[in-house]
Amino acid sequence: MSVALIFALALLCFAGIALGASGGGGEQGSKGWVATDTFKVMNFAVLAIGLYLLLRKPLSQALSDRIQGIKDQLSELEARKEEAEAELARYNERFQHLDKEAEKLIAQYIKQGEDAKAKIIKEAEISAQKLEEQARRNIEHEFKKTREKLQKEVLEQALTKAEEIIKIRISDKDQERLVDEYLDKVVA
């Protein structure tokens, strides 16, 4: 584009020079087409043809480079557009599946929670059974101690009562007979 601008500026400059060389446009009182006018037009034509021949390749190369650059930019932009559309499609698909993934995660968390609940309940039942067993052993032990203590007290009271009864009912004759029996057993 800059080459075309340079060409247009050069054309205007040379046209201005050619116009200035002619005397400014008719104030000399010319009566028509003069021979110098033919030379000026030929001069301008030669200059224009020379510029055309000189600037044709660089100008055409610059224009084709610019066209190619625009084509490259367009193809690059198309490729980026396609990539962006593909990425958008992936994101839309992931967004659509996001609800399903969220439901899966919630289901997993619920299952984990239920598993943890079942495990805690099972551990609590085991602990309760252990505590119940320990309490039963403690109760049995206390019951056994209390029974033994009660039996001991009953035995002591029975012995005391028996001793009292024996003291009341035993006579001297019974005492002598018991002593004799005892001595017979010891001697024999």
Structure description:
The protein is an all-alpha fold and 188 residues long. The protein has a domain at 2-23 and 32-98. It contains three helices and no strands. The chain has helices at 2-21, 35-169, 172-187. α1 packs antiparallel against α2.
Summarize the structure.
This protein has helices spanning 2-21, 35-169, 172-187.
What oligomeric state is this? single chain
What's the number of extended β-strand segments?
0
Shape designation: rod-shaped
Unreliable spans: none
Structural class: mainly alpha
Radius of gyration: 66 Å
Mean pLDDT: 83
Number of helices: 3
How much strand content do the residues show?
A: under 5%
Major beta sheet, specifics? none
* Relative helix content: over 70%
Kindly report how far apart the N and C termini lie.
153 Å
- The arrangement of helices and strands along the chain is HHH
Task: Name a few traits of the molecule.
single chain, rod-shaped, 0% strand, mainly alpha, 188 residues
Outline the fold blueprint.
Elements: H1 2-21, H2 35-169, H3 172-187
Helix pairs in contact: 1-2
